[in-house]
Amino acid sequence: MTQGSSLKRNSFAHSVTMSTAAKVMLTPEQETLLITLYAKAQADNPLFFDPLAQDVLARVDYNFADLRVPYKTVVLVCQRAKKLDKITRDFLVEHPDSVVIQLGCGLDSRFWRVDNGQVDWYDLDMPAVVELRRQFLTASERYHLIAASVTDLEWVDRVTADGRALLVVAEGLLMYLDEADVKRLILRLQETFPGCCLAADVFNRLTARSASSHPSLRRTGATIGWGIDDSYELESWAPGIRLLEEWYFSGDPNLARLNRGYRLAYKLAGAFNMVRKAHRLVYYQL
């Protein structure tokens, strides 16, 4: 671990409430946050490891074996986290004194992974999730927690942007909404923060229809609502929306760190457009 990451981890540790293990009392959809937490806390993953996630995992009173998270899911979650971290870091390099809103934050620690010492950061999730999160983390001058449903758009008024550049990150969230709610969210973000950017992962429609058969989702009972086949479709929702990047998991340069079987599977997936687009990351300017 580098000195910088050690300092970030120490900073995180100072904000963690050292108490007994936290009981999880969440809805099925909210419980999916445990899948991503578990995946990011696996120290033997060659693509991505978040020691802060491991700290939180150790303080959650939950039988994670019950989730039956396949290793391929761990790999995919870690690919997604690493790419979204990169997008956020690049944004902060270009706009150091900016605002970042992370929607459906769960128990993620992205703020501590990418903090540049200037960004004003808002993490948003449902009240039950924020209550659980507060057992580990405390707010600070630049780090804010918002307890609200992402579809209850009144939360937007609690973000102070003051004309600064703004990035919205939605990791593992939009597929749990229906299309009408996704559209309302994006149009409200554009209206309130014109020119802001949105980074998110999305399913195509076929994946959205079939994803509920995933073993971890079957365990939680969560349901998938929205999928999109053509990422340029969002540009038709309002003037000014522009697709900046569409990123495929099969094109990840870090795949070379995986074993031969996984490299071959990703190569085959990348050869078929429908498979390549089944789950991908999109980056828009709104």
Structural class computed from helices and strand pairing = alpha/beta
The CATH class, by name, is Alpha Beta
> Which consecutive residue ranges, at least 5 long each, have pLDDT under 50?
1-19
Backbone CA Rg: 18 Å
Helix content: 25-40%
The backbone outline, from C-alpha atoms, is globular
Q: What name is given to the CATH topology?
A: Rossmann fold
Mean pLDDT: 87
Structurally, the number of domains stands at 1
Number of strands: 9
First CA to last CA: what distance? 37 Å
Name of the CATH homologous superfamily: Vaccinia Virus protein VP39
Label the CATH architecture. 3-Layer(aba) Sandwich
Molecular structure report:
This protein is α/β, with parallel strands linked by helices. It has a single domain, classed as Rossmann fold (3-Layer(aba) Sandwich). Helix content is 38%, strand content 16%. It has twelve helices and nine strands. The strands form two sheets. It has a seven-stranded mixed β-sheet. Strand 6, helix 8 and strand 7 form a beta-alpha-beta unit. Helix 3 packs across helix 5. The longest helix is centred in the N-terminal third of the chain and has 24 residues. It is globular, with a radius of gyration of 18 Å. The N terminus is likely disordered.
